[in-house]
Amino acid sequence: MKKLNLIDKFLFFLNSIAATILLLAYILPYIEPKRFAFLSVLSLTVPFLIILNLLFVVYWLLKVKKQLLLSLIILLIGFNHVASLYKMSASKQVDDIDNIAVMNFNVRLFNVFKWIPDIDAAQEISQFIQEKKPDIISMQEYRPDDGLKLKDYHRFEAVGGERIKNGQAIFSKFPIVNTGSIEFPSTYNNAIFADVVRGKDTIRIYNVHLQSLKIDANSDPLKNEAAENLFRRVGSTFRMQQAQADLFLEHKANSTYKTIICGDFNNTAYSYVYKKIKGDYLRDAFVEAGNGFGRTFDFKFFPVRIDFILVDQNFDINGFRTYNVKLSDHFPIMSKVKLR
């Protein structure tokens, strides 16, 4: 520190704070939100903290200062967190006749309130799906819309509400032999499932939509709400998500089928609910086959990945892609998987 000028000393002080908070954030997936809801809110800042610490590494590297070791060591300790934010390797793409293309897309009610001007969302989403040809589609914030024209798909939808019917839906090119819904109390969010038959195999498809944070993608939350109130509200939402994840896992534990889980978790890969749902047995399609930033939500401040496709050990993951199309506040993701 003696060889640092006053500005660099101040920057290293900020660097130390950023590194310490990131290190603390590494343990958040192991802390139940219902016990420490305030701390769990920090999981939302992990993408920003990773990027900030990377910038500090670059800064000290250009200055040829040993202070770069602080953030570098913290980033190496949390290498799996960094890999969940950005994949430096090329996307894995294995073409196989037996691949099953699985898409997840939060369609935001097909833009019914005209958040995005000058588009017919249902029609354009129909055209997008027709072009990409997924075998299975999981949709959140779905509502019945005559503009959605999907040919050759079996459909299961679970919708409710008085003003606008909305909920979740699963579309499948394979026959659907069983369906159901896992209701979450005091909310329109839920999880649904459909058992589909492909050849001799029955595959259970889950569509999970956990409680929303209700944060506008394009506004600064701190400008619209006091920080204390924001933390309290987000902490309360995380407690609800934990209870919802427990209900979902209780249902999943009774299934003996090969399983694919799609959904909008409304939380990141650094959260307790993600770790709880993924467990040690499921695999994240983006982590294994994606590349670049795993951004699935159109948040203007830093990349956020809150939409997931998880598969069990009965599948090989042969591809993953996030599509940068502006048809919702979420971006569609698709993975190609193959039954072993």
UniProtKB/TrEMBL annotation:
Matching InterPro entries: Endo/exonu/phosph_ase_sf, Endo/exonuclease/phosphatase, TDP2-like
Domain Endonuclease/exonuclease/phosphatase per the UniProt entry, residue ranges: 103-330
UniProt keyword annotations, A-Z: DNA damage, DNA repair, Endonuclease, Exonuclease, Hydrolase, Magnesium, Membrane, Metal-binding, Nuclease, Transmembrane, Transmembrane helix
Pfam families noted in UniProt: Exo_endo_phos (PF03372)
Keyword Calcium: no
UniProt superkingdom: Bacteria
GO term, biological process aspect, one: DNA repair
GO molecular function: endonuclease activity; exonuclease activity; metal ion binding
Cofactor(s) listed: Mn(2+); Mg(2+)
Transmembrane segments: 12-31, 37-61, 68-86
Name the record gives this protein: Endonuclease/exonuclease/phosphatase family protein
Organism: Gelidibacter maritimus
